[in-house]
Amino acid sequence: MTYRAGRHFLQIPGPTNVPDRVLRAMDMPTIDHRGPDFQAMAKRVLTGIRRVFKTTNPVVIYPGSGTGAWEAALVNTLSPGDLVLMYESGHFASLWKKLAERLGLRTEFIAGDWRHGADAAAIGERLKADAAHEIKAVCVVHNETSTGCVSPISDIRKAIDAAGHPALFLVDTISSLASIDYRHDEWGVDVTVAGSQKGLMLPPGLSFNALSDKAIAAQAGAKMPRSYWAWDEMLAMNPNGFFPSTPATNLLYGLDAALEMLDEEGLENVFARHQRHAAATRAAVEAWGLEVLCADPAQHSGALTAVLMPDGKGADALRKTILENFDMSLGAGLSKLADRIFRIGHLGDYNDLTLVGTLGGVEMGLKLAGVKHRSGGVDAAMAILAAAAPAEARQAA
Ligand code: PLP
């Protein structure tokens, strides 16, 4: 491989760029995970992570990808053959459904058009019709990374309550945790699923389940086979700062540093930073004469923006042009959106100049690849950024 000067722009919607401070924190000797130094760090991290989920309940941390935490949420709370209601928000909701079926659960999908988040009213109607309470869990993806649409979790909670339905509520926040406002306790979520590689600014390799009392109680009746993903031993050992199997020691050092950084900036400021960058990105897309995939402005994601290609396809050729010329990776369209969209990640460790550089790369790429568009996207984004410059925004907060 030939050396390419300058920093690679990793602007996919996760994994995100890992800040130097996190890299430095991980660049340490791996210590005895049954010793006192590890114990002190693990206790700090297991407590600190609760603030990010906005919960006072335990958060289980696995060495594993987000997919593992999806599985953990299901096997700890359900029994073979249980019916699970899911909402087709996009590619990741579809993958979670496939995983549930492979585990031996029955699933029902409320159809979606991949341009909206989950529909709280439709979920509520389906639950009202389930007088026998056959549905045991409702599964929703908060930020659908394949589309850039956000599902209204609080409204879905209200719809479940209004239907008087006892189903558990399981939510995937893999691309929203620490990027978009999320409140595990306040929104009455039973299991929140998350991963390390997006808003938490870590490399891939850790995944999380935040629990409710109801989810913890559900273990007793849940008959799905489980061992590695079982919460019981984690919950027994974690309060002491230990884990039932070898934890990902160095990733936990990184998490310790990332939690410190999120605390220093303040979670609400992190959310506001991403919303501002999302608004500037949408202004650029509009100025280019292109269309944002997410069709409901109230559901636009702060974490990423998916952009439709003007002629319906050719997104992969555009991404290739941008990678080869400007050393920037953009997110691909997934499954039925393949080649039709490209996705701009603006989550994680990201500032105004990262955004201007990203959008500059896209605008130059559109021109080079011969994609029909108007110029002026970067200017439009800069106008949004200048209207509320970061130092002023910080003072106002
Ligand atoms: N859910 C969402 C919303 C995601 O964005 C992803 C990955 O990008 C996953 C689930 C799967 O997580 P992982 O690839 O870490 O297993």
Shape: globular
Structural class: alpha/beta
* CATH topology call of the largest domain: Aspartate Aminotransferase, domain 2
Q: Averaging pLDDT over every residue, what do you get?
A: 97
Give the CATH level 1 class of the largest domain.
Alpha Beta
Query: Biggest β-sheet: count, sense, barrel?
Result: 7 strands, mixed
Oligomer: single chain
Give the beta-strand count. 14
**Gap between N and C termini, in Å?**
46 Å
> Helical segment tally?
14
Q: Kindly report the name of the CATH homologous superfamily of the largest domain.
A: Type I PLP-dependent aspartate aminotransferase-like (Major domain)
Residue share in helix: 40-55%
Beta-strand fraction estimate: 15-25%
- Strand order, biggest sheet? 2-10-9-8-5-3-4
Elements, N to C (H/E) = EHHEHEHEHEEEHEEEHHHHEEHEEHHH
Number of domains in the coordinates? 2
Provide the low-confidence segments as ranges.
none
Radius of gyration (Å)? 21 Å
The ligands found in this model are:
pyridoxal-5'-phosphate
What is the CATH architecture assignment of the largest domain?
Answer: 3-Layer(aba) Sandwich
Task: Kindly describe this structure.
The protein is an alpha/beta fold and 397 residues long. The protein has two domains: 20-263, Type I PLP-dependent aspartate aminotransferase-like (Major domain) (Aspartate Aminotransferase, domain 2); 266-396, Aspartate Aminotransferase, domain 1 (Alpha-Beta Complex), CATH 3.90.1150. The chain contains 14 helices and 14 strands. The strands form three sheets. The chain has a seven-stranded mixed β-sheet with strand order 2-10-9-8-5-3-4, with helices on both faces. Strands 1-13-14-12-11 form a five-stranded mixed β-sheet, sandwiched between helices. Strands 6-7 form a two-stranded antiparallel ribbon. Helix 2 crosses helix 9 (249-265), helix 10 packs antiparallel against helix 13 and helix 11 packs across helix 12 (352-368). The relative contact order is 0.17. The model has no long low-confidence stretch (mean pLDDT 97). The structure holds pyridoxal-5'-phosphate. The site of pyridoxal-5'-phosphate has 11 residues, from helix 3. Pyridoxal-5'-phosphate binds at residues 14, 65-67, 92, 141, 145, 172, 174-175, 195.
